[in-house]
């Protein structure tokens, strides 16, 4: 029965870490991220839970003769936004998974 105190202490640490993780994930989900393309002609805003909340397109980039260019700019801005979210997610949440095998 001597090891039970250590086990209880370890369980408390795990529970605290889980609560901390949940809190940080919740904060990350609420945070806004911005992705941009081509001199800010297209700007995409999203949240940490990977929800796109806004797309801004400057009028001068809209060319009815070249819709593919605008499509490419939107895709680039969305991917930039998602990349920014992923980077911060790794920086924020990675500390919880860095020593777990297979993570």
TrEMBL record:
Keywords: Cytoplasm, DNA-binding
Chain spans, region Disordered: 1-27
GO MF term set: DNA binding
Ranges of biased composition (kind: Basic and acidic residues): 17-27
Subunit and partners: Homodimer.
PANTHER family assigned: NUCLEOID-ASSOCIATED PROTEIN YBAB
Protein name: Nucleoid-associated protein TMU3MR103_0673
Lineage: Bacteria, Bacillati, Bacillota, Bacilli, Lactobacillales
């Amino acid at each position: 029965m001597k090891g039970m105190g250590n086990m209880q202490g370890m369980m408390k640490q795990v529970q605290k870490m889980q609560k901390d993780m949940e809190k940080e994930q919740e904060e990350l989900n609420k945070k806004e991220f911005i992705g941009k393309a081509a001199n800010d002609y297209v700007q995409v805003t999203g949240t940490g839970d990977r929800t796109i909340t806004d797309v801004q397109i400057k009028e001068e980039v809209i060319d009815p003769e070249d819709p593919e260019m605008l499509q490419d700019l939107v895709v680039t801005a969305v991917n930039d936004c998602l990349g920014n979210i992923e980077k911060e997610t790794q920086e924020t949440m990675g500390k919880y998974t860095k020593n777990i095998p297979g993570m």
